[in-house]
Amino acid sequence: MTEQDQFIPKDLYSSGTSPKQGKALLQVRQLQVRLPESPDRCQLQEVSFDVEREKKLAVVGLSGSGKTLTALALLGLLPEGTQVSGSVWYFDADQQPIDLLHCPPDRLAGIRGRHIAMMFQEPLTALNPVLTCGAQIAEAVRRHRNLSAQEANDLTLYLLHQVKLDEARRISKSYPHQLSGGQRQRILLAMALASSPELLVADEPTSSLDSVAQAEILDLINEMCDHYRMSLLFITHDLSVAAQLASGILVFDSGTVVESGIPQQLLQQPRHPATQRLVSCLKERRKQVSHPGAVLPHPTIGKGHSNANAAQPASPPVLLEVRNLSVTHYESGFVRRPAKTLAVYNVSFTIHEGESVGLAGVSGSGKTSLAWAILGLQDSVTGQIFFRGRPEDPLMPVRSGCPPRGIQLIFQDPFASLNPRLTIGSALEEAVSAGQPLLKGSACRQQVLRLLDQVQLPASCLARFPHEFSAGQRQRIALARALATRPRLLICDECVSSLDVCGQAAILQLLQHLRREHNLAYLFIAHDMNLMAGFCDRIMLMRNGELVEQNLTDRLFADPQTDYARQLLLSVRRWHTLPY
To answer: Which CATH number fits domain 1-115+199-273: 3.40.50.300, 3.40.190.10, 2.60.40.10, 2.40.480.10?
Structure first.
């Protein structure tokens, strides 16, 4: 028995390749996967588990632990040339076992979608951009049901109502890019429900959504599984979501199941180090939410405490001041006048030196438009921007191509923001040269090495390309590139939303360290207010382009003044705090 075997109950996951009939809808036995790009390494190692009928099972683990790879293996969606061994037994309505790994492609295609459906992590890439959403749902309906075109269209509208999409007829005629992230995820759920499957595989379906949309999608998945009596295999990196949604949890680490059990058992008595690490990250987040602002190192947090008799330190100088800023988006057309949308309306705020200010709001509230306007990357901007007391023309960077000195942006997706054809060393040298043009040769290379040291990466990274790093490492590289110009203010636009809970904690700790060391100020944009609880001095809330509330972090959490703030906090606390 290996060390990890002691964490897996043997009565739940027996060895061998023979299917055992019973309550199981799906039996996975000794599943091993070797991808074509690295055939010498086993990405999945002897994975075994059961999915019972009308039960919910969660698969939890850090990025790269093999969660998504397992789901793709079950559905036969692995790349050509992949070496797969073991067995995946699906039991049909007559309890006859079918080995999905070895059944003919035509039969597998009949099972996939009809009996086992999948919701992918990124709906914009899963949906066809040139077909309307209604046409794609109708296609899924007719693929597995013998219906006429009119009957398929009627069922499509019914499914849109089932997933609680208002204006079903309008949405059915819309293209994916015309919908919000939450609406697109509901479209994927409607497509999955088209054939009334017995098993729904949901792969991180809420990771890119704001907290309100996340809560709505999770509630909807839970409701639809109960309504249609579906089994659920839910893939996530958040143990708190898994504990509330599923009756059983599998913990993955390095391509294998290292621990399994019921949620209460895993949360209260985690035995494997991987599970303990996940629980520790969640407990730290719960502590920050319970005492928001309490862990901040900057002296300005003294203003966040309610002790009126305590001496308050003097406020540091104002670094950024925004007055009456508005941003207008224009959508032109060939036959009609350009449509005008006010993305940001009459926004005013200040950020002090060394201060961390959070900017929260649902998707489409104007957060990113505001950040880009501050950086001078938007046209059609009105209002005033002052940086370190000097006025900045918000349109000058658009005309000159040079953003304001002293302000840098960290994008949400570092893989998209890094040049895939440049090594990390070349990318950082380019950034250093842009910020310090007098540095040449060895002096420039020494500065690059210092940047890597600041973000806690080894010098061996210099010769590697972006695709050779994990998501957390790429975010550190993006941070190093932003620091190359010695900024005073960093705008972090959802810079940790795509990371797992441990990756988020690591990046936030690094940002806190850099803040203490260099007195950096942050405008921290995020949809998860839990992340802001222990990181931000103040939080501003945006809705429909306007700032509707701003307050010190602990006061906002303790006594939100608007219904919008209460809605955001409730959605976060509903799914993203430990239930035990």
So the answer is: 3.40.50.300
